[in-house]
Amino acid sequence: MNKADPDLPPFARSWPRLYAIVVGALVVEIILFYWLMTAFS
Amino acid sequence: MSSLDWLVLGGTLTGLILYGLIRSRRSKTMDEYLLAGQSLPWYHVCLSVMATQASAITFLSAPGQGFSDGMRFVQFYFGLPLAMVVLSVTFVPMFRKLNVFTAYEFLETRFDARIRTFTAGLFLLQRGLSTGLSIYAPSIILSTILGWNIYWTNALMGGIVLVYTVTGGTKAISYTHIQQMIIVTLAMGLAGYMTVHLLPEAVGFTDALHVAGKAGRLNLIDLKFDPNSRYNLWSGLIGGFFLQLSYFGTDQSQVGRYLTGESVGQSRLGLLMNGLLKVPMQFLILLIGVLTFVFYQYNDAPLFFNKQETERLKTSQYASEYQLIEIKHGLLNSQRQQAVAELQTALDTDNQTVVEQARTTLKTADAGLATLKTSVTDLIKKNNPAADTNDVNYVFLRFVLDFLPHGLIGLLIAVIFSASMGSIASAYNSLASTTVIDIYKRRVNATASDAHYLKASQWATIGWGVFCIVVAQFANRLGSMIEAVNILGSLFYGVILGIFLVAFYLPRIGGRATFFAAIVAEALVVVSYWLNLTAFLWLNVIGCGLVIGFALLLERLMPKPARA
């Protein structure tokens, strides 16, 4: 088994997973913003 | 400002500068001076790139944009997390592998010295000019608050930054960045809390969001694809991606920050954390602007937020005309406050008919205020043709000074100052490193000692400081500064990014084709902007696409140089 990169944070076991978390967070933010806009206008 | 504010302001700024200088003793080598010996952990990298990007412009203009234009500006940052991923995969490992001081050194390895110099020149021009704007931003605060001469204020602001940048180098910059980000987060959080706290007792945070939404200020997402619309989802994702990729990947003020990481992984992690934090941070800053807008729905808002200009009007030949406009403004303010009160009651009783009526009244009042504002700016222009008629940058400042408690005023002014000093310091450092590494050492004097280049870097820092201060003296005619900086960046970043993308991904294309493609592309980008053919964010995509397209074409058409 490959040893995890010591630079990685505990919540991501590989760099591709960390990249996916960053992009996923953006998608969640856009959806939340859309909800906020429609819910209060 | 009270003496408490002055104490908080002076203490915060002095503490910041001293801390940075104490934590980083005088650098003895070029590597220490320009890259902090590549010894910093990821959180230094992350906070340093954030502090470099978030200048005083961010804290002055963004709440003002939120107030006057709503939250749609947040879409501008949607491309940033995507750019951070691409940088982590491609740019960071390549720069670290080649062990470069500047991004432009890489271009000589890949192409030739000519394209390295050309790209470094574009960077120096763009960064030198935009740093002038970054000096001007906090200077207008001082001149407004204290009535100081704007020209002397610019000189003072640019000069203070020079002191610790020249002596402390990159390490001093990085350590002060961390303290700055802590102070910024604390103070902006307090400002947001106070804005809600100052609303009438019956109006809570959710009610404030309803009022903002009904007045069209929660316009966070625009799904319509329109090349001429400045901010929508697509321009943010695509145009913003190209702009941020170019800014972080090819602008030495940012490359110099993440090259200080102690390993490839630490540099990557710093950038990716920036990708996670930037959009929420920008959202919260804009939200403060929107909350300020809601606050002024319940209180009398000034028609024009730059008090200096309206005070001049009161003593001019246009005083009676201005007084008439102010009377109309007072009536509209009352109408608007009544509509907001009706809206509040209708929301509480869930009466949709009254909600719609109040929404229409609010929009009509908004349109009326816009017309009155145009009349005032026309008068200001007539009275003083050189006057700044854009008050976006004054909205938040005026609110802070008029309504926030003493002590917090000093802290928020310190935020604006320290943030500005952080980004200006990074810019000076990057301008100096590019000048010395890519121009002086490469073209003028290649065989001097490390100590000589260290001295040259310090002198280059001073020289660029003086240049930027001179630019700041002419910055008052550019409208919203945050937009001015981004427009300036968009004129150059696309072409620079195109050069780097050809270098990374099109190995068959040589330096000659890329060089001429870049010159033609830059000319066409400037013409597109001049003729107002599209919204500025798309210039990044156009510049980048033109370089790649022309380089591919020219590589086919140009005769190959004869081999020896």
Explain what the structure shows:
The complex is a heterodimer of chains A (41) and B (564). Chain A is built from one helix and no strands. Chain A has 41 residues and is mainly α. Chain A starts with 14 loop residues before the first helix and ends with a helix. By secondary structure, chain B is mostly helical. Chain B contains 21 helices and no strands. Chain B has helices spanning 3-23, 30-35, 42-53, 56-69, 79-98, 103-110, 113-146, 150-197, 205-214, 233-250, 252-258, 264-298, 307-314, 319-349, 352-383, 395-403, 408-444, 450-472, 481-505, 511-530, 537-557. In chain B, helix 7 packs antiparallel against helix 17. Chain B is globular, with a radius of gyration of 25 Å. The mean pLDDT of chain B is 87. At the A-B interface, helix 1 of A face helix 5, helix 9 and helix 12 of B.
State the shape of chain A: rod-shaped
- Quaternary: heterodimer
Average pLDDT over all residues of chain B? 87
Q: Which two chains touch over the largest interface?
A: A-B, 22 and 32 residues
**Number of helical stretches of at least 4 residues of chain B:** 21
Short description:
With 41 residues, chain A is mainly alpha-helical. Chain A has one helix spanning 15-40.
Write the layout of secondary structure elements.
The complex is a heterodimer of chains A (41) and B (564).
Chain A lengths: L14 H26 L1
Chain B lengths: L2 H21 L6 H6 L6 H12 L2 H14 L9 H20 L4 H8 L2 H34 L3 H48 L7 H10 L18 H18 L1 H7 L5 H35 L8 H8 L4 H31 L2 H32 L11 H9 L4 H37 L5 H23 L8 H25 L5 H20 L6 H21 L7
Q: What are its keywords?
A:
A: 41 residues, mainly alpha, rod-shaped, B: 564 residues, globular
